[in-house]
Specification:
about 170 residues, mainly alpha, 6 helices, about 0% strand, globular
């Protein structure tokens, strides 16, 4: 299998992130429909792609990318600018910190993904509560949103982490 060279990753990465953001939206909608909107499992392929891209792309490059994609996400999905922009940028910056502290392999990346999905969800719901956009009971959030989201993203990680790691390979 031919690996795309590292120098070219910066050219196709934003397109991959954007497409995965769209996939996230469709899978999240499908998961909600599958459970008759009792549980809300949010797909986070884009976060997984960022996790796999962090070792090979600069912090500045990914910060700009997260800000642009966050603005697109906010304007398209919720219509209020800032919630997901802040959550996405903060989560990706945490990924850089995590990478410097912990030797990253697939096992530590798996647990990191759990931490990052939790962080992303907590930041976004906290901002929504702070700005009175949502009123979510903590127990309901944990059982109906966070739990299903973590399970769904663990499955996504197991199936797609290796292909995404190869896509953003350092070779």
């Amino acid at each position: 299998m031919h690996i795309i060279r590292k120098e070219n990753v910066k050219y196709y990465a934003p397109v991959v992130f954007f497409l995965l953001m769209l996939v996230d939206g469709q899978l999240t909608l499908a998961a909600g429909n599958l459970t008759d909107n009792v549980y809300f499992a949010n797909a986070h392929f884009m976060l997984l792609a960022f996790l796999m891209a962090v070792p090979n792309l600069s912090k500045r490059y990914l910060l700009i990318t997260t800000l642009v994609l966050g603005l697109v996400y906010d304007s398209y999905y919720i219509g209020i600018i800032g919630i997901y922009t802040v959550a996405l940028a903060a989560t990706v910056m945490m990924m850089y910190r995590f990478q410097r502290v912990v030797h990253t392999n697939l096992l530590t990346a798996f647990f990191g993904m759990i931490i990052f999905v939790t962080t992303y969800e907590l930041i976004s719901v906290s901002l929504q509560i702070i700005f009175h956009l949502s009123n979510v009971a903590p127990l309901l959030f944990i059982t109906k949103v966070l739990g299903p989201t973590l399970l769904f993203n663990m499955l996504i990680f197991v199936i797609f982490s290796y292909p995404l790691k190869r896509l953003f390979a350092n070779e």
